[in-house]
What we know:
By secondary structure, the protein is an alpha+beta fold. The chain is built from 13 helices and 18 strands.
Amino acid sequence: MIDRHFLREHADLVAENNRRRGKEIDVQVAVGLIDKRLDILGKTEQRRAQANEVAKRIGAASPADREPLKEEGKRLKEEVKGLEAQLAVLDQDLAAEMRKYPNMLQADVPEGMDEKDNLELREVGRPTEFSFEPKDHMALGTALGIIDNERAAKVSGSRFTYLKGDLVLLQMAIVHYTLSTLVKEGFVPIIPPHIISRESMAGMGYLDHGGEEEIYHLKNDDAVLIGTSEQAIGPMFKDETLDGALMPMRFVGYSPCYRREAGSFGKDVGGILRLHQFDKIEMFSFTRPEQSNPEHEFLLSMEEKLMQGLGLPYRVLKLCSRDTGTPSSRTYDIETWIPSQKKYRETHSTSNTTDFQTRRLNIRYKSGKEKGYAHALNGTAFALGRIMIAILENNQREDGSVVVPEVLRALAGKDVMGKKL
């Protein structure tokens, strides 16, 4: 969440941020709660100090004076107890109010209503052209025997799949390629828990603003399945103070992701673009505040480095104000060319969440005399289903075989999926 003291001192800036994001929130409600809390907190500390002073006087008082002092001390303690009860209620109300607020956008985020207003920064490569009518990934995958949605539907329902044969080898090759690239850049590989507590998910800011609908809940255990490994990596240092001298601290997580896709009825029903379960490789960094913007550019550069290794055409976008997610202060997307759809589709995203998540999770840092809340950033290395769609469709040949990107051939154990060159 955002800093309540910042909100109180700069209510006009917070109100403008809400406007840019299309959020109708009356900042004076939070300001009023903060002021009331400060008032009651001051009274509580005053009564507590008075009670301590009375306790000192009791020890030095004569027997005749002790009883009135004890009565006064008892009265003050009761007042403190009552004020503390008021503070507890106020803290709950204030926390609930503060959870309504999105993160503060950075100044360079463009104004806009939706994805049509996102700013294209660059295009790398050109859309793939074919001398024949290209097939979509499902036609290719079905013919090659490497994707089976039909049998998965019998077992699990819609939006599930079996990946088989060469596609499994391709996925494992991508994982190895990605990890070997990122480990050289200081990323620590991690396989996180797939189940986390609701408290941890709430700390990451994904249960507010309709996020509950996207998440698979294990209600008997008050737990949830992760929708991306960042949701398990972020809370790893909850209630800890990190060594700022070691920052940026970089992790790369590999995990399955589980999403209900509640708001996607009728969208991308066929194929493996929008599944309830898919694997993903995610970058995550903890930094000092002054490092987070340079780190954000670094994460984007790593995404592009990985993409350029695969030789796929893509473009980079900076998301506009109303298309930027609640926890993020700035988000870049990479969209990769999908020939069957004749358009770019999102395959990567990287966000600087500043201290929005770490404040909720109480993750701090200390570096010499400098201390405060750490900043947290995330970035897609590869959402494996989506990037394999791009590989299949952009690298297909007229006979239905698919050329494996050169950097993956030794790892996949073949140059072509399907017929030999």
